[in-house]
UniProtKB/TrEMBL annotation:
It comes from Alkalicoccobacillus porphyridii. This is Maltose/maltodextrin transport system permease protein. PANTHER family: MALTOSE/MALTODEXTRIN TRANSPORT SYSTEM PERMEASE PROTEIN MALF, MALTOSE_MALTODEXTRIN TRANSPORT SYSTEM PERMEASE PROTEIN MALF. It is found in: Cell membrane. GO terms for cellular component: maltose transport complex.
Length: 461
């Protein structure tokens, strides 16, 4: 007997709901933008919404349908040439893709405005149900300015972000699911097709691509780990050394060691490349002069060092030069952290009989790691994509005949550069870029969540 009573009560509440001004205004705005505002007697606002929606339906419907067709098909007719002249322009697959993405982003903006109109009609209708008088158009503008000032200022930034950041990001992701590459799929002479996950399958399974990908990916991981930790601990070492009691002229030592970081990296990398040059670099030139004056050194195995022609030497040189560039940052950072450590902690440790190593292990090291571990993770992500160091110093050399469009010292980001700007392998490069994002994002998020600084901040919230 209780079930019919509940159903009756629910039916009654639903009937009450549909009689409310809030419900009716929301439904009317859902049917046609602005009708809910007319129902709420906000005629100017309703007129603006309705005109905007009419203009959208009349002038944007057809371009939107065309853009969706282009995004779905990427064109049907390639460019036609006769005797070297263009007879028919045809469809440009990449332009169609970009137009489709832009149309989708505009549609998202229109949808947000549509939802806001429904929400506005519902809120005003709810006020009417409470016995309140709706705002006039002038009062609505004043209220929006007072309560939504921050959102008004953020709106241009949102639009710029949407079309200057989100648009290229979506475009680069979509390219990974096409066959956009030389020599057979370059518009406008050829159309580009959607191939799904085939590019990723080829990257992992096709021998010519997989051998390159696994080799470059392995070296990228080694490079990121080695370059991050060598600079970190070298900077830590010098910071501890400078902060040691008895070391005089601390400011002078800091100033000397900061110079490699203060000088523009672009210039210094090129200078370093000349220093390690195998033909005219001063290091090998000095070794050759020694051999000329003392031939027996050659018999003992001394010879010019193949800094850029031997893969192992090239990788070691890269890591060594990167240490020289990177350690000053960590040294200054850690010096600042150690300067801020309360001296009473060390005094208490000395009273308890702790020696220098124990004070370092129990006080200095934990505090420095707590302060710098988030930056250490960011440094790893930065080195994972350290294009400047790789490309300017070695250009990916030495060449590797087993790799496609990559050298022995290329990392994923420099390999992407060569595939796009030098070899027009856009689909594979886009797939590699997407994998880089996934790897770096997962590593960074997971490690950030494990740091003590992140946990303590989360607990404070």
């Amino acid at each position: 007997m209780s079930t019919p009573v509940v159903e009756k009560k629910n039916n009654k509440s639903f009937l009450e709901l549909i009689k409310t001004n809030a419900f009716r205004a929301a439904i009317l705005s859902t049917v046609f933008m602005g009708f809910g505002q007319f129902y709420n007697r906000q005629f100017v606002k309703g007129l603006l919404y309705s005109i905007g929606w009419l203009v959208t339906l009349v002038f944007y419907s057809q371009p939107f349908l065309w853009a969706m067709w282009g995004l779905r098909t990427l064109g049907e007719t390639p460019q036609i040439r006769e005797r070297g002249r263009v007879v028919f322009e045809g469809h440009h697959s990449i332009f169609l893709m970009i137009e489709g993405i832009i149309a989708l982003l505009i549609a998202v903006i229109i949808l947000c405005i549509y939802i806001s109109s429904v929400r506005d009609a519902y809120k005003v209708g709810k006020k009417r149900d409470s016995g309140l008088v709706p705002y006039t158009f002038k009062q609505s503008l004043q209220n929006s300015w007072q309560n939504g000032f921050a959102y008004i200022l953020l709106t241009p930034t949102i639009f710029f972000t949407l079309f200057l950041t989100v648009l290229p990001l979506i475009f680069s992701i979509m390219i990974a699911f096409t066959n956009y590459s030389a020599p057979n799929y370059l518009p406008p002479r050829n159309l580009v097709d959607w191939v799904g996950f085939q590019t990723f399958i080829n990257l992992f399974n096709m021998e010519s691509w997989s051998r390159t990908f696994y080799g470059v990916f392995t070296w990228t991981i080694i490079w990121a780990v080695a370059s991050t930790f060598t600079t970190f601990f070298l900077g830590f070492f010098y910071a501890v050394l400078i902060e040691t009691k008895g070391v005089r002229f601390k400011k002078m030592w800091r100033s000397i060691f900061i110079l490699p970081w203060a000088i523009p990296a672009f210039v210094m990398i090129l200078i370093m490349r000349n220093i390690f040059n195998g033909q005219f670099g001063p290091i090998n030139k000095y070794i050759n002069n020694l051999i000329d004056h003392y031939p027996f050194l050659a018999e003992w195995g001394l010879s010019a060092i193949p800094f850029f022609s031997d893969p192992t030497w090239a990788k070691l040189t890269l890591i060594g030069v990167n240490m020289w560039f990177g350690f000053p940052f960590w040294m200054i950072l850690m010096s600042g952290v150690m300067t801020g450590i309360d001296k009473e902690q060390y005094e208490a440790a000395e009273i308890d009989g702790a020696n220098a190593w124990q004070k370092f292990r129990r006080i200095t090291f934990p505090i420095v790691m707590f302060s710098t571990s988030p930056l250490l993770i960011m440094s790893f992500a930065n080195n994972f994509n350290n294009f400047n160091m790789i490309y300017l110093f070695t250009e990916g050399r030495p060449s590797n005949t087993d790799y496609n469009f990559a050298g022995s010292t290329d990392i994923l980001i420099s390999w992407m550069y060569k595939m796009t700007l030098e070899n027009s392998q856009f689909a594979v490069a886009s797939a590699v870029g997407l994998l880089i994002f996934i790897v770096v994002a997962i590593f960074s998020v997971w490690n950030f969540s494990k740091t003590r600084a992140f946990k303590e901040e989360d607990m404070m919230r």
